[in-house]
Design a protein that fits this description.
mainly beta; 4-stranded antiparallel sheet; 0% helix
């Protein structure tokens, strides 16, 4: 498990796609600045649960 302390949330957005299929996508994304100064994008999968790193640290 890879954990980093978040210093700031810069932006938040939601993506809802493929709602017409058996595998819809519903995610809430966050662009965050970590205490180290690095910037990354993480998201919460609202369909299956769990947090994931999109890019960055």
């Amino acid at each position: 498990m890879n954990r980093h302390a978040v210093a700031l949330v810069r932006e938040e957005w939601r993506v809802v796609d493929r709602w017409w299929t058996e595998e819809p996508v519903s995610r809430r994304y966050f662009e965050v600045v970590l205490e180290s100064g690095a910037t990354t994008v993480v998201y919460r999968d609202e369909e299956g649960g769990g947090w994931f790193t999109q890019r960055g640290a």
